[in-house]
């Protein structure tokens, strides 16, 4: 489950970076592109960090 | 949930709120947009300037720098949008500006499927006279000649789209004397001095 979320987070981040840097935005869609790309980057980075920082419950013998 | 995770989640929510405010909220106007530069309407002088012609160098929009040379007798002013000019000459008016052609289109497809239908819809009495492919300043260009009749008075018009690396330049000229050579002369004056200046 955690690995699946990690891959999803990477996909979100990658999509955001693509929209931000490589996608040819039409003049009429610059505002929505600004919002969506930053949204994806922030959510992607945050979910990656949460994924990495989330402490698993320790198994007791 | 530990404190680090909670902090990241809160920071993410705060960042999303800020992005929303900068996109659609009260901070939207604070995002820096390209603005017309005063230098773009200052003609250059020097050995490169031909007699009777003023050169202008427009560096308003990154990756879309261009230069034009217009007769000194023409009135030229900065346009409303970055990278644009408006001008007037004895028998007409015109404009030069940047236009965004999407990557999933071609200049020709864009002109025929988007620009011409828009002109036909918005300009009274629109009638195409010719459409030709040409070359301007070494770049691929398309020339559209058409008639309009605003207020019942026939005008001759020309639009030239010059392809660039990122955007295209569109030069539009309108002459109030439809059958005179004024339109052709004005159009030649505009396209003769055009060149992209990207480095």
Q: Could you characterize the architecture of this molecule?
A:
The complex is a heterodimer of chains A (61) and B (199). Helix content of chain A is 72%, strand content 0%. Chain A is an all-alpha fold and 61 residues long. The longest helix of chain A is centred in the last third of the chain and has 24 residues, at 30-53. By secondary structure, chain B is α+β, with helices and mostly antiparallel strands. Chain B has one domain (35-196): Mog1/PsbP, alpha/beta/alpha sandwich (Protein Transport Mog1p, Chain A). Chain B has a 7-stranded antiparallel sheet, sandwiched between helices. A 3-stranded antiparallel sheet of chain B has the order 1-2-10. The termini of chain B are far apart. At the A-B interface, helix 2 of A face helix 1 of B.
What's the overall average pLDDT of chain A, rounded? 85
What is the number of E strands of chain B? 10
**Total number of beta strands of chain A:** 0
Q: What's the CATH superfamily of chain B, by name?
A: Mog1/PsbP, alpha/beta/alpha sandwich
Short description:
Chain A is an all-alpha fold. Chain A is 72% helix and 0% strand. Chain A has helices at 2-21, 30-53.
Spell out the key features of this protein.
heterodimer, A: 61 residues, mainly alpha, 2 helices, elongated, B: 199 residues, alpha+beta, Protein Transport Mog1p, Chain A, 7-stranded antiparallel sheet, 3-stranded antiparallel sheet, 3 helices
């Amino acid at each position: 489950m955690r690995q699946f979320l990690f891959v999803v987070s990477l996909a979100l981040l990658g999509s955001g970076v693509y929209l931000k840097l490589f996608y040819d935005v039409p003049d009429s869609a610059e505002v929505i592109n600004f919002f969506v790309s930053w949204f994806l980057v922030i959510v992607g980075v945050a979910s990656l960090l949460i994924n990495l920082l989330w402490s698993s419950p320790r198994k007791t013998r | 949930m530990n404190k680090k995770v909670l902090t990241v989640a809160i920071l993410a929510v705060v960042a999303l709120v800020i992005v929303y405010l900068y996109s659609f909220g009260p901070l939207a106007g604070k995002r820096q947009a390209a603005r017309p530069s005063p230098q773009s309407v200052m003609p250059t002088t020097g050995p490169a300037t031909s007699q009777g012609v003023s050169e202008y160098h427009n560096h308003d929009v990154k990756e879309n720098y261009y230069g034009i040379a217009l007769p000194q007798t023409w009135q030229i002013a900065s346009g409303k949008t970055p990278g644009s000019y408006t001008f007037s000459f004895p028998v007409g008016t015109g404009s030069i500006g940047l236009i965004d052609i999407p990557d999933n289109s071609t200049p020709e497809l864009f002109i025929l499927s988007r620009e011409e239908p828009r002109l036909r819809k918005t300009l009274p009495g629109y009638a195409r006279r010719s459409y030709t492919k040409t070359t301007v300043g070494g770049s691929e260009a398309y020339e559209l000649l058409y008639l309009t009749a605003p207020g019942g008075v026939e005008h001759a018009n020309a639009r030239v789209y010059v392809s660039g690396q990122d955007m295209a330049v569109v030069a539009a000229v309108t002459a109030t004397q439809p059958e005179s050579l004024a339109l052709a002369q004005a159009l030649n004056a505009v396209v003769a001095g055009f060149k992209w200046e990207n480095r």
